[in-house]
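Entry type: protein chain
Record version: 2
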Amino acid sequence: MIRVEHLTKVFEDKVVLEDITCTFEKGKTNLIIGQSGSGKTVLLKNIVGLLQPTKGDVYFGDINFTRLNFIQKKDIRKKIGMLFQGAALFDSATVEENVMFPLHMFTNMSDEEKSKRVNFCLERVNVTDANKLYPAEISGGMKKRVALARAIVLDPEYLFCDEPNSGLDPQTSILIDKLIKDITDEFQTTTIVNTHDMNSVMGIGEKVIFIHQGRKAWEGNNKDILSSDNEALNKFVFANQMAQELRKARAAK
């Protein structure tokens, strides 16, 4: 479980996040949603430690991550898997080498053990016969699956996904969502997904935090979201539904 308590983030004189308090539950897909510029990406970066909050605290379990020094934070980071928006694979490394990279960094496994773990993770995300291929030789959807394999190779307790469906077609997006949900269930990770994709919200949003103008404006799940009387949330949902219908219409032409 991850707890965020009264988190505020200020850049120079601009308040980007203000007094955010929320909990992200173990074994569930926890989604952060909001319009571009709402602060959801900044919130994710503060939670994972890429940014330091101006005020407030982030707890991983009972440990106050915000108050740890750099060396102490490293022990927590070993338990974190990260799926970046653009996959962030190393272009000069093969699929196998990309997934193996965290094992080189954080473990003392033998080469045989590393290869076995890499193959297990690639099989888990349905990537086969691609170990020796380079990122330029695989599709965008496969890149995301390889990046997800790398994110889980250390068997993390915490999984962070930043816009995992960005740039993907609807069918591939559904596949990525299902993989994230299945992995969360199987390994009981505390999974946090930063997204603006309403298909993801309705498909895997077991817990949803809606950020509006830097504040937490709504909290619930995908069953409650359509019956919400929150005006800002309703506008966000409607705008996304209209955008998705427009993309479908263009794709059908």
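Comment: The chain has a mean pLDDT of 89.
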